[in-house]
Amino acid sequence: MSRENKILILLLMFLLSFFCTRLIFAGEPSKESRKKGAFYTGKYPNLFKKLLNKKDSEINDKIGKAFQQFFYGNDETERIYYSVEPDMAYITDINNNDVRTEGMSYGMMISVQMNKKNEFDRLWKWAKTYMQHQTKKREGYFAWHCRTDGSKIDSNSASDGEVWFVTSLFFASARWGDGEGIYNYKKEAQHILDAMLNKIESSNVRGEVTNMFNKKAKQVVFVPSGEADDFTDPSYHVPHYYQLWARWADKENQFWRDVADTSRAFLKRAVHPVTGLAPDYSLFDGTPFRFGNGTQHNFQYDAWRVAMNVALDYTWFAKDKWAVMQSNRLLNFFHSIGVKKFGQVYTLDGKQLVDDHSAGIISMNAVAALASTNDNRKEFVQEIWDVELPTGRYRYYDGILYMMAMLQLSGNFRVWHVK
């Protein structure tokens, strides 16, 4: 064999060894890199640029203006975030003059997405100090609403608050690193996860504290309490968050994977097959449910958020094309009414019950455009771009949904990867 042939063979062997080594040690990331979804690609769509041809400077200015108003605007008419010196803050529901885990956890999520560590830490310390139960059977859970002085109004928990607390804490850990005490974000997130699954499994006894996720149904419960733990709220089903927990939690990982898959299957059953509308409450099989003499079997305030959850799950993980079909169906229903005049409360088959065309539902419908392939999705994105910033009595819910939608539609609502 010639010297040149020996050199060629050795070179080929080296190249073969190099590429085999790369394949062996690349492991799971190499497989995942071939998957679609922003979690894998790191590419988050910006529909303001794509559909409306807005410049980065315009988008950033609009988001910055909204944050400034809701966090530091006029005390009486604009802001929902209030500082408590020296190092705490709360977000208040202006209409009800209380502080809710929903608003606190959403505020923390907005803060971490916008790299506002000071605001995040202030909100978290207030929630930890006044809302989280530290002893006895509720330990680890949060009182779902308090007065602005920190006193508890109701010791029960609303499960969506804990869900968003956990995810925002994980993101804070990834983005800023863990500090000491209550600012060890990852440890705090895990503490809440542990609490969710270590109470009584289920109970029919009024006031008995139960698990936040039903282990048999593998679904989030409406309230982890004996009178309200045998049904759920479709807007609490955020499979994209549960998918992350399955990766980052230090235990029960397979359970969280199952919960993510179950939530995706549940949402298919919960929405109306023609309108795409979801009820506020439902049984675990997706059947609409009314609590007492309420109207929660209709599409109303909680249910607005289902559009956001379906679209974000698809944007991040692209698990099931059903999310595209659902987003198309929902936007077609509202488009048939009129993008500038649809109301905010409906029966599931589409009878309008409340006419108000509020910023909250405008925002959630716009987020559905992330998963939609409809030509009409541009009109919904234009509608949120054009809407005036909420002020006055109802600015809390409308405003906080608007703020999150603006981040989501601009590609600024991202997974911060925990190591």
Kindly describe this structure.
There is one protein chain. Residues 3-30 have low confidence and may be disordered. The protein is α+β, with helices and mostly antiparallel strands and 419 residues long. The termini are far apart. The chain has helices at residues 3-32, 38-41, 47-52, 56-72, 101-113, 117-131, 159-176, 185-196, 239-248, 253-270, 306-317, 322-337, 359-367, 377-386, 395-409, and strands at 81-84, 88-93, 98-100, 145-146, 152-154, 213-214, 219-220, 345-346, 352-354. It has a domain at 33-79 and 253-412: Glycosyltransferase (Alpha/alpha barrel), CATH 1.50.10.10. The protein is built from 15 helices and nine strands. The strands form three sheets. The chain has a five-stranded antiparallel sheet. Strands 6-7 form a two-stranded antiparallel ribbon. The protein has a two-stranded antiparallel sheet with strand order 8-9. The chain is 49% helix and 6% strand.
